[in-house]
């Protein structure tokens, strides 16, 4: 397989994921569809934008609740950080715990999305992903680094964040494949 073709497919999938995730609640479904597309691509199966869109619709049936949970967790993190800025006693500790909890939750959501298949229940996927997040620290660290690259790319040049999401999808696909091979 041509490595440059795989790289370009990852960048394309990143743009697809970013566009499909614009409503925010659809982020888990968009990421699930993106990783499923990459798995199909690596297996040499046919798949394009039409299949990606179908997967987004199918994954969104239960995935929007996960997206709502991510938005609620982000709102709680904002409250934690407001406590830190206000100088409340224990604020820095609460802020640090909140940031670490949010990172762990995002890693679990990404892991769950990377395992999604049509008919999968998000609750089951999240439970398994939570266990794998703790039991596979190397894979979790890879995903944290991928998220950091997306954030830094977006901070430096905002349009770069969209294709870089595809690199995180590739990393999640690789972490999943590595776990399945053990």
Distance between the termini: 23 Å
* Mass-distribution shape: globular
Q: How much helix is in the residues?
A: over 70%
Cα-atom radius of gyration: 16 Å
The average pLDDT is: 92
Number of strands: 0
The major sheet is characterized as: none
Number of helices: 7
Proportion of beta-strand residues: under 5%
Parts with pLDDT < 50 across at least 5 consecutive residues: none
Order of helices and strands: HHHHHHH
Q: Structural class of the secondary structure composition?
A: mainly alpha
Commentary on this structure:
- There is one protein chain.
- Helix content is 85%, strand content 0%.
- The chain is mostly helical and 182 residues long.
- Helix 2 crosses helix 7.
- The model has no long low-confidence stretch (mean pLDDT 92).
């Amino acid at each position: 397989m041509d490595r440059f073709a795989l790289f370009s497919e990852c960048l394309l999938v990143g743009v697809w994921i970013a566009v499909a995730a614009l409503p925010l609640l659809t982020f888990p479904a968009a990421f699930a569809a993106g990783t499923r597309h990459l798995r199909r691509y690596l297996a040499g199966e046919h798949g394009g934008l039409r299949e990606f869109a179908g997967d987004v619709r199918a994954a969104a049936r239960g995935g929007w609740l996960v997206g709502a949970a991510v938005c609620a967790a982000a709102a709680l993190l904002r409250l934690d950080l407001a406590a830190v800025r206000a100088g409340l006693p224990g604020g820095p500790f609460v802020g640090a715990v909140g940031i670490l909890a949010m990172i762990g939750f995002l890693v679990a959501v990404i892991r769950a999305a990377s395992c999604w298949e049509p008919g999968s229940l998000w609750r089951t996927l999240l439970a398994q992903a939570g266990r794998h997040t703790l039991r596979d620290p190397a894979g979790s660290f890879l995903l944290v680094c991928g998220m950091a690259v997306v954030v830094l790319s977006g901070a430096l040049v905002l349009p770069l964040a969209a294709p870089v999401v595809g690199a995180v999808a590739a990393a999640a696909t690789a972490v999943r494949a590595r776990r399945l091979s053990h």
